[in-house]
Amino acid sequence: MLEHGKRDLVSIEDLSTAEILELFHHADEFRGNLRAWSELCRGAIMATLFFEPSTRTRLSFESAMLRLGGGVITAADEKSTSRAKGESLADTVRVVGGSYADILVVRHPEDGAARVAARYARVPVINGGDGAHEHPTQTLCDLYTLWKEKGRLEGLEVVLCGDLRYSRTIHSFCYALARFGANIVTMPYPGFELPDYVLHRLRRDFGVQTAAASVADLPGIAGSSNAAAYLTASKPHQLALFTNLTNIEVNRIDAIYMTRAQRERHSGEETKNYPRLSRSTLGAAAAKDARIMHPLPRVDEIDYDVDDDPRSVYFRQAELGVPMRMALMAFLLGRIQLRATRPGTSSVSPGIAAGAGLRCSNERCITNNEGVRYLTRDFRLREAEAPPVLSCAYCEREIEARFVGHAQDRVVHRYNSAEARRIQPQHRVYFESEAQAQAAGFACREG
Length: 447
Ligand code: CP
Prior knowledge:
By secondary structure, the chain is of the alpha/beta class. It has helices spanning about 15-30, 55-65, 90-95, 115-120, 135-150, 170-180, 195-205, 235-245, 280, 315-330, 420, 435-440, and strands at about 45-50, 70-75, 105-110, 125-130, 155-160, 185-190, 210-215, 230-235, 245-250, 255-260, 290-295, 380-385, 390, 400, 405, 410-415, 430, 445. Bound molecules: phosphoric acid mono(formamide)ester.
């Protein structure tokens, strides 16, 4: 695997809060006159490698680069690339990133693919959506729109509705909302709740507290979801609130973020009564000043007669994608500098060969698909005890390791035994089960 000193945007966490705010100001400047920047990235070439369909992400990136004076090469369809002949993503980005292009935007159906592209490409890689994992540039557009509409992000009440399980835009958006101090109300279509690994990360990395929620009448969406939850960044007054209340009543909504059912990632799940946002939804008193958001494409979850309501901003989100992506690319190509500092070094452990005994539990992870041919499994230790929790470095899915072995004596013990605790961290090898340890050639000992 190759290592390069460059900035990528694989996760929204790859940008600090201050950097995001500074990029908003650059986007404002670009937006002031979109045609005035045609010298800024002259000579630069962007390649869009899209192995899944797209209208907005690919075309807004291409428009952004052309407006910056750069050039564009594109693979808009996997059938037109050598992926159809079996070429790996790693080989594709090694070839395209360099003499062909100075920056890559990659969309791929497998979770964790963007991290693979970033590790193998010599040039900056932007995640244009990897499976159900993340879609960080959509989040930049969403945050930018909300920030412009409301003048702030902190303390906003944002309702997330629909398929929260498979929507990559939702996952990136949640992390960012939590970081900016917005409160999140989840109203999933039953069975499509936020994945556990996203919830754990919100709690662990952002101190988010969760409570049951009731939302003032929202016809069309409230009726379909009786499992609303309130997620809020932990602040002293909110912690106090949470000890007294088990149910948060939400009477003011700043944004309703609707998502389509991500049917291309479903395995036959029922979506017959999927929520639908209509004019009557907007009649709810709590939604008086709400902004109606959607990453698009819309299928049938927002009625067309909602489009004319001044609170509907989903086409604005798409429009703001061009100046926002201009700012991002100008930054990653070093054509503008930011004063803000980059995100701090992660507190999680670096990749540990110790995770080599593990297999990612996410069947859609790139490590269990095309990456089987060439990727070394890579896990991060997230929680050291009770039991140890590791996450896949590509798709971030979590695994509980109930057995810990010694890399040299090749003996494995239960995670909570005295023997396991005596193993130095650098010698630990983690396993989910005894069978997995035995398959890796470790002997099991009681205790
Ligand atoms: N929002 C979004 O990602 O749209 P496309 O799939 O059209 O790119």
